[in-house]
From TrEMBL:
Annotated Ferritin-like diiron domain residues: 1-146
Catalyzed reactions: 4 Fe(2+) + O2 + 6 H2O = 4 iron(III) oxide-hydroxide + 12 H(+)
Lineage: Bacteria, Pseudomonadati, Bacteroidota, Chitinophagia, Chitinophagales
Keywords annotated in UniProt: Cytoplasm, Iron, Iron storage, Metal-binding, Oxidoreductase
Protein name: Ferritin
Native organism: Chitinophaga pollutisoli
Length: 171
């Protein structure tokens, strides 16, 4: 059985994962209408789907542990970006925020001796290491590319491969 405080904290994380999904969906939609950024759009559509899966996993866990998973109300995310670089900076900032929230949840679970929740959250800890590394890698690549159009073309073409590279431990 979940304590009320753990249930509330997990539901807050549900909200953060849902907001992440919406933010990445907005990034995908923005990229979708930019000339030559179809790869980036597809990447962010996939990111949005992934965050929704994270949200559902949390909701189901809360309910399985005797709590009540709450579907959150969401605010409108940022829907336009000044540049591709700015969108990816926002992506990294968001992933860092999610990591901090997961770390706070892990700490709370240990404080309350809720080892089942602590164990469940380890998947999220590992996932966030990968997500932050991916976001940093993509930001580093954009920094190297600068305004070079051929570099941006290659970045857009190859972006869907970066996730696989980062998951394998490459950069």
């Amino acid at each position: 059985m979940l304590s009320k405080s753990i249930q509330d904290a997990l539901n807050a994380q549900v909200g953060l994962e849902a907001a992440s999904s919406q933010a990445y969906l907005a990034m995908a939609s923005w990229a979708d209408i930019q000339p030559g950024l179809q790869g980036v759009a597809d990447f962010f559509y996939q990111q949005s789907d992934e965050e929704r899966v994270h949200m559902l996993k949390l909701l189901k866990f809360i309910n399985e542990r005797g709590g009540f998973g709450v579907v959150p109300e969401l605010k409108q995310p940022i829907i336009t970006f000044l540049s591709l670089k700015r969108a990816f900076e926002e992506f990294l900032t968001h992933e860092i925020k999610v990591s901090e929230s997961i770390n706070d949840l892990v700490h709370q679970a240990l404080q309350e001796k809720d080892y089942a929740t602590h164990n469940f959250l380890q998947w999220y800890v590992s996932e966030q290491i990968e997500e932050e590394r991916l976001a940093r890698t993509l930001n580093d690549k954009l920094e190297l590319i600068g305004e070079d159009k051929s570099g941006l073309y290659l970045f857009d073409r190859d972006i869907l491969n970066y996730r696989a590279q980062v998951a394998r431990g490459g950069k």
